[in-house]
Amino acid sequence: MVKKLATSAKSFFIKSKRVWHALKKPSKKEYLTVAKVSAIGIGILGLLGFLISIIMKFFA
Predict the structure, then answer these.
(1) Distances 19 to 1, 39, 51 between C-alpha atoms, Å
(2) Which of 2, 12, 31, 49 is the most exposed place for a label (fewest CB within 10 A)?
(3) Phi and psi for 27 in degrees, rounded to 5?
(4) What residues in the chain have per-residue pLDDT under 70?
(5) What's the pLDDT at 60?
(6) Cβ(35)–Cβ(42) under 8 Å?
């Protein structure tokens, strides 16, 4: 049991190390693009929720 846990933990750290080395810092342009897309998505979800709540209050 303990040996299996140690093996899976070691495997996890090896995979994490591989991913960490593959990462790169995003450029300012990439960062701003992701931020804009995320903000638009959050805004759309908020608007959708607001519209659903208005419709529910209207019919309830």
Answers:
(1) 27, 27, 41
(2) 2
(3) -75, 170
(4) none
(5) 76
(6) no
3-state helix, strand, coil in the chain (%, to 5): 90, 0, 10
- What pTM value is reported for the model? 0.59
CB 29 within 8 A of CB 21: no
Answer whether 53's CB lies under 8 Å from 46's CB. Answer: no
Q: Where are the domains of the chain?
A: 2-59
Q: Which two tokens stand for residue 55?
A: 């419709």
Helix count and strand count (H, E) for the chain: 2, 0
At position 46, the amino acid (one-letter code) is G
Handedness of CA 3, 19, 35, 52 (dihedral sign): negative
